[in-house]
Write a structure and sequence with these properties.
The chain is an alpha+beta fold. Helices cover 45% and strands 12% of the residues. The protein contains 13 helices and 5 strands. Strands 2-1-5-4-3 form a 5-stranded antiparallel sheet. A hairpin with a 5-residue loop joins β1 and β2.
Length: 294
């Protein structure tokens, strides 16, 4: 994590500043004329609209006041036009207290989940909190070779050209993944895996640096997505993410009897014969599949 995000006050100030820069004067009913040296709202404009003094708001952004009242935070959330997830994230940042070191744990895939993966006839895999693929079934690897155990979904999305071509809306996908990572990290900012991943992507991806600076937060749960598979063509699939102990089971499935259903059956047949991909094994427990989580 960056130095400015290493403490609760600095993280709160960084978040306020990032969100302030994303709100235009016209969105809050202010005149848009004249030269403006900063993107979005000025500090004094946020303070005026939130009903607090400019000096106090400046202290918040600079991390000098780490205990704003819930009323002040709610006013700021209104001015910055935060949704429910963003508002709760703001409140959590302000509520952060000095943290005691946590005992490191590994992300462990229960044995029963490996058996479940082996029986599922749809793309299914297990991911950790940092989007590390911990286990996957043959259909998942036929669906995307980047879903082999040991891969990282966010790294693949940002750095692998094939993964970029795979997604119908890569721009939206990257925004969702990066916002979800920030939500997942929460106050666990000294987690070695998170530090490693954020550092790697900040060095290697301009897209990551741009989106990370926005401080977007989001929950990436279920949904529907369209992908461009190189063998069977476009697939429109539903995605569900099911928490199991400390990991998440992710499954993709089509509407029954749809065109995507037919294509997924074809993909299953190709995977069974080894045509779609020769790496169609389910990940099994070993030292390399355990990731420190906290």
């Amino acid at each position: 994590m960056s130095e400015e995000e290493s403490g609760g006050g600095h993280r709160l100030g960084s978040y306020l500043r990032a969100r302030r820069e994303l709100v235009s004067p016209s969105q809050v009913g202010l005149p848009t004329g004249g030269r403006r040296r900063v993107p979005g709202l000025r500090r004094e404009e946020v303070a005026l609209l939130a009903g607090i003094s400019p000096d106090y708001y400046l202290r918040l952004e600079r991390g000098r006041d780490k205990n704003p009242s819930p009323q002040v935070l709610e006013s700021l959330a209104r001015v910055l036009q935060l949704d429910d997830i963003e508002r709760m994230y703001l409140l959590d940042l302000a509520a952060a207290r000095p943290r005691t070191p946590r005992r490191k744990r590994t992300e462990h895939v229960p044995a029963r989940v490996y058996e479940l993966l082996a029986h599922l006839q749809i793309p299914a895999f297990v991911e950790g909190r940092a989007f590390d693929v911990l286990a996957s079934n043959p259909m998942a690897v036929a669906f995307s070779p980047r879903l082999r155990p040991g891969e990282n979904r966010l790294r693949s999305l940002l750095l692998d050209p094939e993964e970029r071509a795979f997604h119908q809306d890569w721009t939206k996908a990257t925004a969702n993944f990066i916002a979800t990572l920030r939500t997942t990290i929460g106050d666990d900012i000294d987690n070695p895996r998170f530090v490693e991943l954020v550092g790697e992507l900040a060095l290697s991806s301009q897209r990551f640096r741009t989106l990370w600076a926005r401080h977007d937060v989001r929950n990436l749960d279920g949904g529907t997505t369209t992908v461009h598979h190189p063998v069977v063509g476009d697939l429109r699939l539903h995605r569900d993410k099911l928490p199991i102990d400390d990991v998440i089971l992710v499954v993709y499935y089509p509407d029954k009897d749809s065109d995507s259903d037919e294509k997924l059956r074809l993909l299953a047949a190709l995977a069974h014969t080894g045509t779609a991909d020769d790496q169609t094994r389910v990940g099994r427990p070993d030292a390399s599949s355990d990731r420190p989580t906290r």
